[in-house]
Amino acid sequence: MKLSISFGSLKNAINLMEPDQKGEFKLELQETQMEKLDIELAEGKDVELKDVDVDSGLLSYKGRNVSLYIKANGSSARFHVADCKTLQSMRANGRFERYVVTNDTSGEFIVASGYGETKAKLKVCQNCLRQLNYKGCNTGTPISSIVQQFDMAQFFATYSSFFPHLPSRLAETAETGYTEDWAKVSSHYRVERDFTCQQCHLKLRAHRNLLHVHHISGVKSDNRPQNLKALCIDCHSKQPMHSHMALSHAERQLINNLRQEQGLLDDLSGWQELFDYSDPGVHGVLHACKQACLNRPEINHFIIDRFGDFAARLELAWPENKFGIAISENDIEDAQEAGWEVVSVNDFLQNYRTQAHHLRA
């Protein structure tokens, strides 16, 4: 049967956005498929502990953020999300268990039981959360409540900048509930807001794809203006119940580069603003710094070498001390070559109590 499709509404929405230059639109069938590895990880893949990369302090399997557990421990098992002291002890003692890695976010794990394999809800390892100071669990927030409310999708989204491969969004987890005219409503609303984020005030007229329209109540069929809010992708990803929005490191860096160009990072007056604008993967560091009464760092700091060229970009920096924290290994190495002391998030969290006294006012 021949289908007749009209793109009139789409063209009208494009015109509302007043593009500087109109591009070409082509409709083609493109077959896509999940990589075999992603399918295996979604189901749970048996591995040896030595095959799991822990360089960042998180658990990675071939560039994917994963959790790890021992299937034979049954429903009493704890799943791991970081290279905690429990895993370090297992590795040191050469324990050869049947480890399983997965990037499934349902919270249910296939475990062994007296009746064969079954699915069970497992709890996250508290040592892992403490290793990362996740949500400030070492510095104020009760860890018991963090364990009870732990959400795997939110965890993966928090640390998405550390991994080259982001979780695939399957059809069954795709967002639904939008009205048929949502594209038109969204475009019109962004025009009304002059393509400006209503939370951080970043102007995105030249980068319109980085501005979303958020439903404040969470009800996607409620398009009343008072229920809408224009948000840059970073601010949008940090809204409650938005763990499906895992951003890449490059996307978060681009947003902060634009904020810096527009002077939005010049006068951050308190800790909360640092949390609001920084990559969520460094929030454990910020919680630790705040609790230890360290000086507030700068966000998105660029290091210039002695030739006046760009050397490295730091997530957090104390320029007076030439000390900083970076996510990218390349940035860490390049900053060190430029004469700075720069460490990873994991290294800082393991040593700040004894080595960060020079950052205190």
How would the blueprint of this fold be written?
Blueprint lengths: L7 H9 L19 H8 L1 E3 L12 E2 L2 E2 L1 E4 L7 E2 L5 H8 L6 E4 L5 E6 L2 E6 L1 E2 L1 H7 L10 H6 L3 H7 L23 H11 L18 E5 L12 E5 H5 L11 H13 L9 H7 L5 H9 L6 E7 L5 E9 L4 E3 L3 H9 L3 E3 L1 H11 L6
Helix pairs in contact: 1-7, 11-13
Nutshell version of this structure?
With 361 residues, this protein is an alpha+beta fold. The chain is built from 13 helices and 15 strands.
State Rg.
Answer: 23 Å
Order of SSEs, N→C?
HHEEEEEHEEEEHHHHEEHHHHEEEHEH
Which percent range fits the helix content?
25-40%
- Gross geometry: globular
Strand arrangement in the largest pleated sheet? 12-13-14-15
Q: State the end-to-end CA separation.
A: 73 Å
Beta content comes to 15-25%
Tell me the domain tally. Answer: 3
Query: Given the helix and strand composition, which structural class is it?
Result: alpha+beta
Average pLDDT rating:
89
InterPro entries: HNH_nuc (IPR003615), Multihaem_cyt_sf (IPR036280)
